[in-house]
Amino acid sequence: MKRICVYCGSSAGASPAYAEAARMLAKAMVDDHIGLVYGGGNVGLMGVIADEVMRLGGEAIGVIPQALMDREVGHRGLSQLHIVKDMHERKAMMAELSDGFIAMPGGIGTLEELFEVFTWSQLGLHDKPIGLLNVNGYYDGLIAFLQHVVDERFLRKEQATLLLNDPDPGTLVARLRSFVPQLHEKLLDPVTAAKIV
């Protein structure tokens, strides 16, 4: 595992625990020689984790649409900053550059990115690990809801287990690193999946 894509808020959130978790995740990744791929911003939790990775001597790669760069929220102190056309190109490049994904606390954009890569895994478009950094129980409601989705038979149990979760950054990074894809049926065969991407 060379790089992990981290989805997180462009806000710092209500609790200082979120920024502290971002710094701890940065340290866990740098200590394990894992680079950061993220949305390229210099604000909120995005800025916190990127700043800390760079401060610790790690690799931080940002991917940001031109429209957001024009609003001066792009981080100019990264290892690399890719400026792309739109959000679709941004998400595709972030996924391509990464060997796994972690969603930290964040808003609707974070959830949208998380569920897109979760759906891609369910479909068989990738077999990279996906984790929730469940700081202060932030994702407890989501985890409970996904169990409800399983109970109501809209999601198979083995597909739900594709989403790892842990409150500790170091433990979550270790779980992503040791992840072994399960040999269960995907919704698309590899040939069909390749045609979609």
Question: Top keywords for this entry?
Answer:
AMP nucleosidase activity; 197 residues; 9 helices; LOG_fam; DNA-binding; DNA binding; alpha/beta; seven-stranded parallel sheet; Rossmann fold
Tally of structural domains: 1
Major sheet: arrangement of strands: 4-3-2-1-5-6-7
Largest sheet: 7 strands, parallel
* Beta-strand percentage range: 15-25%
Query: What's the order of the H and E elements?
Result: EHEHEHEHEHEHHEHH
- CATH structural class: Alpha Beta
Distance between the termini: 22 Å
Mean model confidence by pLDDT: 93
Radius of gyration, whole Å: 16 Å
SS-derived structural category: alpha/beta
Q: Find the CATH topology.
A: Rossmann fold
CATH architecture: 3-Layer(aba) Sandwich
Helical stretch tally? 9
Principal-axis shape equals globular
Number of strands: 7
Q: List low-pLDDT spans.
A: none
Percent range of helical residues? 40-55%
InterPro entries: LOG (IPR005269), LOG_fam (IPR031100)
Family: Belongs to the LOG family.
Keywords: Cytokinin biosynthesis, DNA-binding, Hydrolase
Catalytic activity: AMP + H2O = D-ribose 5-phosphate + adenine
Please outline what is shown here.
With 197 residues, this protein is an alpha/beta fold. It has a single domain (3-196), classed as 3-Layer(aba) Sandwich (Rossmann fold), CATH 3.40.50. It has helices at residues 16-31, 44-55, 66-70, 87-97, 108-123, 140-151, 157-160, 169-177, 190-196; strands at residues 3-7, 35-38, 60-65, 80-84, 101-103, 130-133, 163-166.
